[in-house]
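Good morning C.,

I know you're traveling, so I'll keep this short. The sequence:
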Amino acid sequence: MTQFELAPADGVDPKQVPERILAGGISMPALGLGTFSNDRFTNAQVAEAVAVALSVGYRLVDCAAAYGNEKEIGEAFAAALKGGLQREELFVTSKLWNDCHAPEKVRPALEKTLRDLRLDYLDIYYIHWPFPNTHAPGAAHDSRSPEAVPFDPAAYLETYRELEKALDAGLIRNIGTSNMTVAKLRLLLPEVRYRPVVNQMEMHPCFAQPEFFAYLRGESMWPVAYCPLGSPLRPERDTAPGDLVVMEQPAIIELARKHRLHPAQICLKWAVQRGQVPIPSSVVRAELAANLKAVVADPLSEAEMRQMAGVDANCRLIKGQVFLWETARSWRDLWDEEGI
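The tokens, ready to paste straight into the viewer:
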């Protein structure tokens, strides 16, 4: 594993990275590293990417039990902390997987994540999906689990309340929702003791979700954007005819040429300037450093931001078909038929 360096020559001072102030007053870096392997990288490669990312200036790392690599990532965290990084400088998030929604399973799942990551607390703990539905590894996109069910607000609230207890116990500092919709959040928010500070969701220039974005900010929540580059390496089960290739959109290519950057960096500039928290994934040191550098200098102009807004085509790429119940009509049922 790469030795941790506090000040590498190709890095960025973490203090230069924009921040989001969460509802409770805690600051969160506005750019992070996603650790989903896209079925293409080994756990060791992802852990190595975490070590490299920390060395070039990343401080937000987004994890999940379902990714199956938290133990290896924990080794990277341990090495970084031993090498001089302070825990308070890190912002680590993880997620409760769907098969642990039962109230009695929440605390053991969280404690396992903490053991694997070698941490005493998480900065945010998400409920990964609003359904307890699971699928077999490598399941076809049209497979249906006979045990899959639609969204149950009462059951979800029971799960959420276990996260509130974990916050009371100091095991987590904030609660996050993930893959929710406006309709679902409207049912949840009036019932909770601790409001979620973020919602993690698909968000990129071709799927900007402006109405959902405005709703979240109105509720003092920040959108955390997965697939901020359109996830070009996503598993085949998550591809469908008509999907747009985000980084091949003419407006993005034009701006990349103008700024002498890769289209990926234009997408990240747009995301951070817009007010979301993108969490791109990479295992390449040069890409990791370039992504971070892109959001601390040479901002897009107002005209260029308007140009980027024109790329939006309401094109959802991660449709979630594998979580559908047997009577569901299509993947749109997961998203309340509105896409928001």
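Safe travels,
E.
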